[in-house]
From TrEMBL:
This is Protein argonaute 18. InterPro entries: Piwi (IPR003165), RNaseH-like_sf (IPR012337), RNaseH_sf (IPR036397). Signal peptide: none annotated. Residues 1-197 form the Piwi domain. GO terms for molecular function: nucleic acid binding. It comes from the Eukaryota. Pfam families: Piwi (PF02171).
């Protein structure tokens, strides 16, 4: 559904999204009236690629998947992105929202399915992750007609003080989901935390990346910290994979700063 809204629409945008996306179950694209009747081809192109992505299309593919997706292209792999959004500090009643997405089209890895789940107030560790991962694994099998053999998980928003909680609570939930579907088989997991930071860790495996095109102002690199790697990535392979994923953002033809741009695209569709 294409909804053309007044430029000053107040709460109308939120109501349209809520009714069509949740109550009725229709995918929608909202546009301001001035943007629909614009003479700017760039604005119209941006609207078109958003509609194409929401309709299940691909806006970009890798020219050489074997080269651009090291390790991932060797055998069926599912790539996850996860983040928890919290209410403002002065809002003591609203819940936090966890969003988890996962690829469903190996080996091109440009189409993603997503799950949104309400969490406890300001809880960073994702609850119910086992069921979420199981749902996304099913979507991968349906989309790729294959069972995944390796799992790469990008986790955004976790502070260094929460690494132990992630290792003890979230990763075991991922393992439980995998074993429940695949006859108690041990999953091959690479788990990467995404942060904005200043220095490399003295002992852990981590790296910095400026994956985006800087339009204005200084760049701030993103830090990636590898908490677990069963898939035996080399440093070059993991950095190359992460950088190349920055170019798969469905709503813009540019690269983004974070190599889980698929998650950003999904988040955009929620609002």
């Amino acid at each position: 559904l294409l909804a053309i809204l007044p430029d000053e629409n107040g709460s109308l945008y939120g109501n349209v999204k809520r009714i069509y996306e949740t109550d009725i179950g229709l995918v929608s694209q909202c546009c301001r009236r001035s943007n629909v009747f614009t003479k700017s081809n760039q604005i119209l192109a941006n609207i078109a690629i958003k509609i194409n992505a929401k309709a299940g299309g691909r806006n970009s593919v890798f020219d050489d998947a074997q080269k651009s997706l090291p390790v991932v292209s060797n055998k069926p792999a599912i790539i996850f992105g996860a983040h928890v959004t919290h209410p403002s500090a002065i809002d003591h009643s609203a819940t936090s929202i966890a969003s988890v997405v996962a690829s469903q089209d190996w080996h091109e890895v440009v189409k993603y399915n997503g799950v949104v789940s309400a969490q406890g107030h300001h809880d960073e560790i994702i609850s119910g992750l086992k069921d979420i991962v199981m749902e996304l694994l099913h979507a991968f099998e349906k989309g790729s007609n294959k069972k995944p053999e390796q799992l790469i998980f990008y986790r955004d928003g976790v502070s260094e003080g929460q690494f132990t909680q992630v290792l003890e609570k979230e990763i075991p939930e991922i393992e439980k989901a995998w074993k429940a579907l695949y006859d108690n088989e041990k999953p091959q997991i690479t788990f990467i935390v995404v942060q904005k930071s200043e220095i490399c860790h003295p002992a852990e495996t981590d790296f910095f990346l400026c994956g985006h095109v800087e339009i204005k102002g200084p760049s701030r690199p993103v830090q990636y910290l590898v908490l677990r790697d069963d898939n035996n990535f080399t440093a070059d392979e993991l950095q190359g994979l992460t950088n190349n994923l920055c170019y798969t953002y469905a709503s813009c033809p540019r690269s983004l700063s974070i190599g889980m741009s698929f998650f950003s695209a999904f988040s955009d569709n929620l609002v």
